[in-house]
Specification:
The chain has 273 residues and is an alpha/beta fold. The protein has one domain: Rossmann fold (3-Layer(aba) Sandwich), CATH 3.40.50. 37% of the residues lie in helices and 20% in strands. The chain has ten helices and ten strands. The strands form two sheets. Strands 1-2-4-3-5-6-9-10 form an eight-stranded mixed sheet, with helices on both faces. A two-stranded antiparallel ribbon has the order 7-8. Strand 3, helix 1 and strand 4 form a beta-alpha-beta unit. Helix 2 crosses helix 3 and helix 4 runs antiparallel to helix 6. It is globular and about 50 Å long. It starts with a strand and ends with a helix. The model has no long low-confidence stretch (mean pLDDT 95).
Length: 273
């Protein structure tokens, strides 16, 4: 297996780190991580996909992992800039028909990139749903509804979200948390630069492979169903990845540690395009 390569993309005051796992000429897959999760966390998943013939690039989202700078009061970006970053990464990679793989927040960025006219051969969503509060029940749902305004309020006060200290989402720009909270409250994505991107998802026509994960309390299966229901023009293939299939207990993050059967499914999806 070829060594992992890291390159950087300058985006104004920010620098995005691109962690490339080359396979040697196959189709390129761009993997976009979950909120606060560094690109290196997906090395095992990337290695398995690379062994199947895909060139894999995992992009650290702004302010996460090897991307700089870390979010501070000076950080003004939100979902709009994360979506713009997807196009910039694909431009620098000179890729015409990539596979976009999004985990959680990364799935939001990937799908909204397509909603704004971006191109891809296919879209894979893993544990990526619209975290609308109505899909969460019991004490977890009560906590989500109570904590969301606290998260946005603290982010506004400090100028950033200190999730690295509080155990949720990593350190994030307040704009990212503002836009995430909008989805929690409404079930819809916020307008980006005056564009109703939620409605534009209905124009996305690329094939979609959408995977929910057993044991995922942060993105239960109904939130992914709600997300994919917005993709009315796309052919969506749904799969629920179970402990019985993976061979190990999983949650929103640990599926990456038991991902061999799932990566085989993703490779089959890619080969069908």
């Amino acid at each position: 297996m070829s060594a992992v390569e890291t390159r950087y993309l300058e985006r104004g005051p920010d620098r995005l780190a691109l962690r490339r796992h080359p396979a040697g000429g196959g189709r390129t897959a761009l993997l976009l991580p979950a909120m606060g999760v560094p690109a290196a966390y997906y090395d095992g998943v990337a290695a398995r996909l690379t062994a199947g013939g895909l060139d894999v690039v995992v992009a650290d989202l702004r302010g996460t992992g090897a991307s700089t700078p870390r979010p501070t009061r000076a950080s003004r970006y939100g979902y709009g800039e994360l979506v713009d970053d997807v196009a910039a990464v694909l431009d620098v990679l000179a890729v015409d028909a990539p596979i976009l793989i999004g985990h959680s927040l990364g799935g939001h960025a990937a799908a909204l990139h397509l909603a704004l006219g971006g191109r891809a051969a296919g879209l894979v969503l893993v544990a990526s749903g619209t975290p609308w509060h109505r899909y969460y029940t019991g004490t977890f749902g009560m906590a989500l509804r109570a904590l969301t305004p606290m998260i946005t309020g603290l982010s506004a006060t400090l100028g950033y979200w200190p999730g690295h200290r509080l155990g949720f989402g990593g350190r994030q720009a307040r704009g990212v948390m503002r836009d995430w909270a909008h989805v929690v409250r409404t079930g819809d994505f916020p307008d980006l630069d005056g564009v109703a991107v939620d409605a534009r998802l209905a124009d996305v026509k690329v094939p979609v492979y959408a995977v929910s994960v057993e044991g995922d309390r942060l993105t239960p299966a109904p939130t992914l169903d709600h997300f994919t229901a917005k993709l009315t023009a796309a052919t969506v293939t749904r799969h629920h990845y179970t402990t019985a299939e993976s061979g190990a207990p999983m949650n929103h993050f640990r599926w990456t540690r038991a991902a061999d059967p799932l990566t085989d499914r993703i490779l089959s999806f890619e080969q069908s395009l």
